[in-house]
Amino acid sequence: MRDHANEHDTDPQQSNMLPHPPRDHGGTARASQCRLTPLPDGEVRHDAPIAFVYRPARNPMQSGPRPKRWMLQLEPTRPLEIEPLMGWTSGNDPARQIRMPFSSREAAIEFAEAQGWRVYVLPDHDRKPVIKSYRDRIVAKPEPLRRDAGKKAIRQEFAPTRSTEEKASSSQDSSTELLDEMLEETFPASDPLPLWSGRIGPPSNSAGATA
Length: 211
Known about the structure:
This protein has a domain at 31-121: Double Stranded RNA Binding Domain. The protein has five helices and six strands. The chain has helices spanning 105-114, 135-138, 150-158, 162-186, 206-210; strands spanning 50-54, 70-74, 81-82, 89-90, 99-102, 118-121. The chain has a four-stranded mixed sheet, with helices on one face.
């Protein structure tokens, strides 16, 4: 009876395909065990795909820190096409879907060079946080108090001055004088001003009888 399990065991050094590269406990690929096609030192295939190594940006939908892992992504070799039946945008480029995470930039470069790929490392720009302070817009700014003057000086500062009182009295006198002039003009000079006797109603006949 033959052992069929040994027929599927292949050597990674002699195989041309490795469907799933081995990973370490952190979930990143190990470049030392993913060498599919050994090449001499310094030799690069001209038909090899271009690999971009970059560090992903922070997710704008979350407030967490920026991820520390590095990504390896292959350059697309075929354009996207529109599916004629449903209108979906798709393509038949297998390299477009490859995105491999690595724990460091050096590990990603080592893995790409082991495959004979041309590597381009995108610059990593660390954004410095800009601290914006809105404290000056909501904090009150009272004027400094004069400690040497005391409470008496503050009361005198907010107390009404004599000039305002004089202005109020002069305006009241002018209004009364204007009212008197208007009353004198409404009656002739021969008729005296009517005086109120304190009674309400028609005048009594006692005054005429005595006359």
